[in-house]
Amino acid sequence: MRQDHLVAAGQLSRADVERVLDRAAEFDAALESGESLPARYPETVLALCFYEPSTRTKMSFETAMKRLGGDVVDMGSVDASSVKKGESLADTVRVIEGYGDGIVLRHPREGAARMASEFVDVPVVNAGDGAGQHPSQTLLDLYTIREAAGLDDLTIGIVGDLKYGRTVHSLATALTEFDAHMHFVSPDSLRLPRSVRFDLHEAGAQVREHTELDDVLPELDVLYVTRIQRERFPDEDEYQKVAGEFQIDADTLDAASDDLTVMHPLPRVDEIAPEIDDTDYANYFEQAHNGVPVRMALLDLLLSNHE
Ligand code: NCD
């Protein structure tokens, strides 16, 4: 990778992505076979700083670090930390840099991880900055797509909250490196932000926008479903207008190709009916499990760069 930190998907070239995914595949095979992995980072401590709720991202980074032989320290909930006393993010990360060899940061403010990365010398991974970016999720999404459908000549539909969904912003940016055909499906009020559309356009991406899933479903190799990000809406009434807008159930998928792969970064609320879970379409739990080998590969690259 060209940089020490991972703050946005735009940093990743196709070669960077392939390097991480290839490494992840090695870790995946080793984990799968049950063989014990050499403890590559026995002295290494990863600091977890989550200013917003997390299950998958935090636990998979923790598992990844431990599987590499290292350990973690966790800032814990914001309510129980000095953030409550009014400490600035810059001060907090400068202190935490003294405890950990890398920092994984999730924060409600866009740009928080980039800002934090300017104050510390240890690698910073953006684990979500408001409605901005979530690049490590993108790596596991790409890994999952590569396994299920391949990354060449991909036609993907991304549906739901494209405005506030940070996983979407990162994934769309990264997919420009693979010349994917991207179809964005959302209510008008939740279209991709102008800045993301601009970046996709600048990258020469093949992008189309829709308000109805039916318009594109039969063409798709992958359907990437997202949760409406209720916590980001300035107004609850606005959320209620779009809540439940796209719900995928068995009937919806009647028009889909038999090879369609359905993904979701999770957590889901009601976007995908549980009846899909046991079908061959469903890939979202596998996707979440891929977080461990992919984050092992990412940590390995960042930490070995930094030695
Ligand atoms: C996502 C996030 O935090 O942006 N969750 C995750 O990390 N898998 C998606 C979401 O919260 O909807």
CATH architectural arrangement of the largest domain:
3-Layer(aba) Sandwich
Distance between the termini: 14 Å
What are the segments in which pLDDT stays under 50 over at least 5 consecutive residues?
A: none
CATH class of the largest domain: Alpha Beta
List the helices and strands in order: HEHEHEHEHEHEHEEHEHH
Structural class: alpha/beta
Quick one: CATH superfamily of the largest domain? Aspartate/ornithine carbamoyltransferase
Strand order of the largest sheet: 7-6-5-8-9
Describe the structure.
The chain is α/β, with parallel strands linked by helices. It has two domains: 9-134 and 290-304, Aspartate/ornithine carbamoyltransferase (Rossmann fold, 3-Layer(aba) Sandwich), CATH 3.40.50.1370; 135-288, Rossmann fold, CATH 3.40.50. The protein contains ten helices and nine strands. It has helices at residues 14-33, 56-67, 89-96, 112-117, 135-148, 166-175, 194-202, 236-242, 284-289, 291-306; strands spanning 45-50, 71-74, 102-107, 124-129, 155-159, 181-185, 206-210, 222-225, 261-263. A five-stranded parallel beta sheet has the order 7-6-5-8-9, with helices on one face. Helix 5 packs across helix 6 (166-175). The longest helix has 20 residues, at 14-33. It starts with 13 loop residues before the first helix and ends with a helix. The protein binds N-carbamoyl-L-aspartate. Residues 56-57, 128, 134, 137, 166-167, 227, 265-266 line the site of N-carbamoyl-L-aspartate.
